[in-house]
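Journal club prep, shared notes

We agreed each person brings one worked example of a sequence with its structure written out as tokens. Mine is Elongation factor-like 1. I'm keeping it raw so we can talk through how to read the token line rather than staring at a rendered picture. Sequence first:
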Amino acid sequence: MGHTSLEKIIALQRNPANIRNLCILAHVDHGKTTLADCLVASNGIISNRLAGKLRYLDSREDEQIRGITMKSSAISLLYKEYLLNLIDSPGHVDFSSEVSTAVRLCDGAIVVIDAVEGVCPQTQVVLRQAWLENIRPVLVVNKMDRLITELKLTSQEAYIHLQKILEQVNAVTGTLFTSKVLEERAEKEKEEKEEKESEASGGDQVYDWSAGLEETDDSHLYFSPDQGNVVFASAIDGWDSGMAQFAHIYSQRMGIRAEVLLKTLWGDFYLNAKAKKIMKGAQNTFVLIIPPQNSWAEDKEKVEKMVTSLGVKLMARDSRHSDPKVLLSAICSQWLPVSQAVLSMVCEKLPSPLDMAAERVEKLMSVGARRFDSLPKETQELKQAFLQCSSEENAPVIVFVSKMFAVDTKALPQNKQRPLTQEEIAQRRELARQRHADRLAANQQAENQDALSLCLSAQMESLAVKEPKLEEDEGTKETFVAFARVYSGVVKRGQRMFVLGPKFDPTQALSMLSEGCSASDALPAVPHLSCCSMESLYLLMGRELEGLEEVPSGNILGIGGLEECVLKSATLSTSPACPPFTPLNFEAAAIVRVAIEPKHPSEMPKLVHGMRLLNQADPCAEVLIQETGEHVLVTAGEVHLQRCLDDLRDRFAKIEISASKPIIPFRETVVRPPKVDMVNEEVGKQQKVAIIHQVKEVSQGRLSDTLHVDSSGLVTLTTPNRLATVAVRAIPLPQDVTRLLEDSSELIRTLEQLNMSLREGRRIDVSPRTLEAITELKSQLESLLQGRKWRNTVERIWAFGPRRYGPNILLNSVEGYHRPSVWQCLVKGERSGEAPVVRDFDNSIVSGFQLATLSGPMCEEPLMGVCFSVEQWDIQSSSEPQHQDSVEEDSASHEASGDGTSTAEGTSETSAQAEGITAGPSQAKRRTEAGSVDCYGPVSGQLIAAMKDACRHAFQAQPQRLMAAMYTCEIMATAEVLGRVYGVLGKREGRVLHEEMKEGTDMFIIKAILPVAESFGFADEIRKRTSGLASPQLVFSHWEVISSDPYWVPTTEEEYLHFGEKADSANQALKYMNAVRRRKGLYVEEKIVEHAEKQRTLSKNK
Ligand SMILES: Nc1nc2c(ncn2[C@@H]2O[C@H](COP(=O)(O)OP(=O)(O)OP(=O)(O)O)[C@@H](O)[C@H]2O)c(=O)[nH]1
Ligand SMILES: [Mg+2]
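Then the structure, token by token:
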């Protein structure tokens, strides 16, 4: 990179009004990197001829080979007096976490859409991501050449086609906008209502939901060429539709002002050439400028005339080229360069760091459920620093690191050889000359000296030679650079800063630290706070880095030397009042796992080290060590997995590794007893054959003295010391409830945190939005859990699990036990002040439930969609018998206080009776038998184990099923390969949801779902079978119950006839289950010898 442009960039960094931080977002293969190439070429970093072919920002070898981008990378560009920090992002779903890291650092985005394919699934996802991060998008409709060369559209048809695409994009934006306005509206109404309520004014209120929509101006949000936020381009040929240039040409010809023309180039206007006027009508002016069919390029004379009138320089080899397309692109790319149009649109339409909205700042700063105005005063003051984006010396420095990426240490600017300046060359020449003269003199002297000194000097020399060698060894290492942005203040090299962990709490820190302290002072230990120093600062230039001394506010930069204190992302600040930024929201769930081991067991430490580095270098990959001791890598999909393995092999561990087959996750659940058997006969009507298989009966038959299972599935279990008894029943949750719980897991986690802090006696100020979301969840659950069986269930939810936020419910159906519900945070102030009434060892029950739901009895996979109802829980606390009384007293007083609880008790009683459950031995009787030796610890432990076992037995008492993870995929395919796509889908147990024809093209869009277990190699197979015409992207969608029963054996005569004694026709669920059990080293029940006949040699009988 030239000296002058580096100096210019450094100068421009100080002027935030002229900085644009932007990223390029799109569906896979819509041409982001190609467009980035055109922009990079405009700065002379690569040549114009190579732009679009080189894909400069795809710097990895595998990116070039596969032709897809796998990481986001940044480059700083100059345009007029603007500095553009451009980030190219990947479009493949597997790398959508990289998109999140890019979007967080930007203020604007270029959304690229393929003019033929239109809005695709990832396009919607990125528009949503941009919306959620409050960054402003502009649109580039790319691959316009395909409209002409492939679809062979006329100008008018092309116009209609493009209009449709814009409608589709605007529809997506519209949906996002409407939901936001309605949400804000509802919030405002609620606040107003609350205010009114506090003023005690009654009366019905009528809500006008549409009112907010009409008032709010949304015209600036939509994409339209007359707004100037759309460019139609062909990145590969480097031209755009040149609306500005055409407006200029026509304005000269017609005498109409260019601005007016620009506004009317799009839409139902046309130019009346004779009258020299713009008229309104169904025709339109845009058709004039859609590049004409390339037939004109064949007319040599016309071309020459055009070339001279446009002042374009044509290379001889281009004008001689036989393909008219080459000529077309050569003329157009010079006449209407795409970079010009895109860059000027970006500078005009995208906001600078100074325009950051207050709303965005508050969103970034208020972590979790906390309200912005509940943060400490010092923290709230920082909002001003964000908004001012000031580079003053005294401004607090705030930096956000969105990811860490690894670079070869040799590629760092300090280790690279720079081209020398003229003076340096002269200096070196002088030095060399002197050395030569010295050597000559020394040679003369040496003749007189003894051998020893010669030897010494030789040694000295050899030492001097060795030093750089050492460095070389170092050079093969990877160094981590943080991908970051400065939001306020100036970052300087060597500066010390606080690193704020995600759980850091500024309130706590401010109370512990003295005022005005800085990261270089000796500080008391504050939780989640550490210090680091900015060892080196870099300007990110695509494949290269340039060293910098300081970086002012509003810029994107790389920071070296943070690998010890930052894992993946972090907030850095000089002020301890700064809160950590809200975590990045990743769209893709990491779902593909493999176990990894080194080829040579002795290289294990290298592998462990390598995996640690990989974990740090990838925003989405997770590295775990399972209980079994396996090293497991979790990735977002097959392509991502491949990249991680390559990285591990070649960069981080540098050893041969072997990866297991992907480990497929399953869930375990219970279902209602089926009404028909396997041959579709109603259950219970046929004659049962003598029971040959006794697999299932074992669990019910083996009754120890502490375990009792009754015919309705109620499991009663007593702890070994006989002090506590629990009775649990497993009930399948309705599908909708499971899905709701699964979707709301984040919210449930927040709820659990709130409850935890309430239990500890702290109260946090919760944002009204969170409270509303919780209320909404509760009412949704209530409406889904209807009917006699579920009466009052929602109020009695004890916990969620596993990990306290999973899709299983623990239900409190214990007679006479009124513990505070999980919804206690919704209760208004006054009442939540009273101490919650919780029995001793309440926690043990919850822990037992958590353990049971974490790994089920079928193959130790987590449970899903199961409700465990605790119907009896007797315990005697032998060490403090009087405590029981106090608890009872407590609950009595609780009842006496007379709120909803007494009714709750009534119903729980009736429901218990209705289901015909007889209460266990009464508490009083138990207490008289109380032993006297148990102390606190063992009882709680035993209770956990008992609860866990009870849950497992209760689970086994119901019909058990496996659940499989499902992918959705959208495949775009032409009619001729459609059959083959269906073939592959069918073979892999995929289901087609719908199929439609894409308007204006001969493509079909097929939407299908496919089990994850069958998906490996799917994309490759489809690509091969369709000669690369269809390439699907798999996105995790949901969990689905596999309908076959893994434990099924024929029991009726019909089944017996149909399936035979062994019932060995394919039982998919059993196969999956056994595969998992085998992998985990669990006992697998199978016959090893199928036909126990005497062996004989077959060949003799032939
Ligand atoms: N015909 C035509 N092809 C284009 C154009 N722009 C890009 N392409 C082609 O589209 C393919 C994908 O281009 P990329 O720039 O790699 O797409 P991308 O959006 O960066 O892809 P990912 O980063 O993998 O999401 C390449 O083969 C390009 O040659 C265009 O304007 N016209
Ligand atoms: Mg790309």
